[in-house]
Amino acid sequence: IIYTAGLFGKSGLSTWVRNFVLTMHNDYDITLLSNTFGESILAEMSKYVECIVYDREKQYECDTLLHNYQDNAIKGNIHARHTFILLHCDYARMGHSGTFDKHLKYIAVSEKATENIKKIYGLDCIAIEPFLIERKPKKVLRLVSATRLHKTKGYNRMLDLCRLLKANDIRFQWLVFSDEKKTTEYPELIFMGDTPNDVVLDYVADADYLVQLSDNEGWCYSVHEALSVVGTPCLVTDIPIFKDVIEDGYNGYRLPLDMKNINILEIYENIPLGYAFSDASTDSLKQKWTEVLNG
Fold it and tell me: Where on the phi/psi map is residue 231: left (φ > 0), alpha (ψ -120 to 50), or beta?
């Protein structure tokens, strides 16, 4: 049993408990016992161990109790063959003025903390470094749009894409540069308002994708700038103008107009490098313009 008064997702203790559980749950039958659980850590830890809200009227039995330090206030209804008090910081360096029960066994976070606790408080203390779990962080998908928010400009499809990302547990941030403002259920969709073009381009350059989901476009300037100016891949609708410009997996992805059957995990996990510049294509385009302008 690991006991603590409260266990919340953003606390250092929760990080320690989480890493302990992920390291040890295959070898031990672990119960987390706490007066209060935060929703996030309860949801995650319940996958691996039993999480129980402490009830002072019940009796709890275990081989080993790991009790988070709270002035040695061991609960009388928790019975263990071995009890360790977890010291999650160097109390000696914090000017701690409380008392420690010298009959109990202590586990501290570091050799230095153990040394100070033994020296100042005369406690028998074991040093165990914090567990460090190898974890591949989830990438926050960064999207940028520079568009009007009319229905024909793809606003409804933007909401469809938000729903799809959320349904697949993909974290994202989507900046929308537009004179119009909308209120949505998605805090990830941030409306930036009127912004100078050079600032918008800086954000487009840093984004994973420039998104343009219109019904119909002659030629979208934001897509043009993303591909040819800053080299950012694009997510666009599968309309004729983009068929020769956006090649799936190379410089972006074309999404169906009905926003169905989209391989969102491929889009998330295989972000293209962007547009490959070609001197030959640039020279060819320049020659065409020269011929037209010169008559």
Answer: left
Among 5-14, 149-158, 181-190, the range scoring the smallest mean pLDDT is: 149-158
Environment class of residue 211 by beta-carbon count within 10 Å: exposed (0-12), middle (13-18) or buried (19+)?
Answer: buried
Cα distances (angstroms) measured from residue 46 to each of 25, 100, 210, 211 = 11, 32, 38, 38
Q: What does each C-alpha distance from 182 to 1, 3, 100, 151, 191 come to in angstroms?
A: 49, 46, 58, 12, 7
Provide the phi-psi class of 96: left if phi over 0, else alpha when psi is between -120 and 50, else beta.
beta
Q: Quick one: which H or E segment has residue 163? A: helix 155-167
Quote the strand ranges of the chain, DSSP E.
2-7, 31-37, 50-53, 60-68, 78-87, 105-108, 125-127, 141-146, 172-177, 189-191, 209-212, 234-237, 252-255
Both tokens of 189, joined, read 């969709």
Percent residues over pLDDT 70 in the chain: 90
Q: Give the closest residue to 223 by CA, choosing from 175, 214, 277.
A: 214
Calculate the dihedral angle through the C-alpha atoms of 37, 38, 40, 45, rounding to the nearest 10 degrees. Answer: -20
pLDDT tens-place string over residues 239-292: 888 887 888 888 899 999 999 999 999 999 999 986 655 566 677 778 888 999
Report how far residue 63's alpha carbon sits from residue 115's, in angstroms, rounded to the nearest whole number: 28
